[in-house]
Every structure is written in C-alpha cells, then in structure tokens.
Amino acid sequence: MINGAHVVIYTKDAEADVAFFKDVLKFDHVDVGNGRLIFRLPPSDLMINGGDENGPHELYLMSDDIEADVARLRAAGVACEPPNDQGWGILTSIHLPGGGKLGLYQPRHARP
Q1: Distance between CA 33 and CA 88 in Å, rounded?
Q2: Is 101 within 8 Å of 93 (Cβ atoms)?
Q3: Mean pLDDT in the chain?
Q4: Residue 98 pLDDT more than 90?
Q5: Would you place residue 72 in the very low, low, confident or very high pLDDT band (cuts 50, 70, 90)?
Q6: Which pLDDT score is estimated for 109?
Q7: Share of the chain above pLDDT 90, in %
Q8: Cα separation of 44 and 61, whole Å?
Q9: Which of 15, 24, 32, 49 is 20 to 30 A from 39, alpha carbon to alpha carbon?
Q10: Can you tell me the distance from the alpha carbon of 62 to that of 64, in angstroms, rounded to the nearest whole number?
C-alpha cells in the first residue's frame, strides 16, 4: 500500500534552504544522518494537469490565510511575490534563500 510521498527540492544552497524550512517555516523534521534533515509536510493533495510536454512537476504549499502568511514571511525577511487571484485560489511565490522559488496558494476549491 502506498502510504505517502517524498518530495525533493534541488537547490544551489541546501544549507540556506534547510534553515528556511527549519527556522522560518518551523516544519517538524528528523535528522537521517550527516546533518541531513527530512521535513514533515502538511497534509497534501495531488492534481494531474494536461500539457504539451511531460514535467516539470511543481510543489505548492497551501494556506488558510495567504495575506497573513505573506505578512509573516515578509516580516521574517522572506521575499514573496504579490498574491494574485487566479479564481480557483490566491497564488504567490516564496523566494527561497538558495535562489529557487516555491509556490504558496490559498485554495478556493474543495479539498479532498
């Protein structure tokens, strides 16, 4: 029985991004050896979208109150794109310390 999913973020500065998930987002984690942390993710869902090509796959964190979360992240020095109403939800991007971006959205659709 499949019992979960494992997500990997590739980054040019793993130490900075690990600190972000640990110290800013405060995600629970375990050390699996050599200082490598695996973070507990919040409950998640999966959607399949059609496209002209396969991949890339995307990861979005979800929020109950995106305006409050963006304000909290900005207060912690995290750059965020302005929230943008997409109809199905409100979407922003978080700038990770390692140089990447991570999606954050407040869904307006039913959650499984």
Answers
A1: 40
A2: yes
A3: 93
A4: yes
A5: very high
A6: 85
A7: 75
A8: 8
A9: 49
A10: 7
The DSSP code for 107 is E
Distance, CA of 42 to CA of 25 (rounded, Å): 11
All structural domains of the chain: 14-42+58-107 (3.10.180.10)
From the centroid of its chain, how far is CA 94?
8
Spatial separation of the C-alpha atoms in residues 47 and 111, rounded to whole Å: 11
- Please give the full DSSP string across 47-91, using - where no structure is assigned: -----SS------EEE-S-HHHHHHHHHHTT--BPPPEE-SSEEE
- Paired tokens of 98: 């390692």
Both tokens of 17, joined, read 């991004």
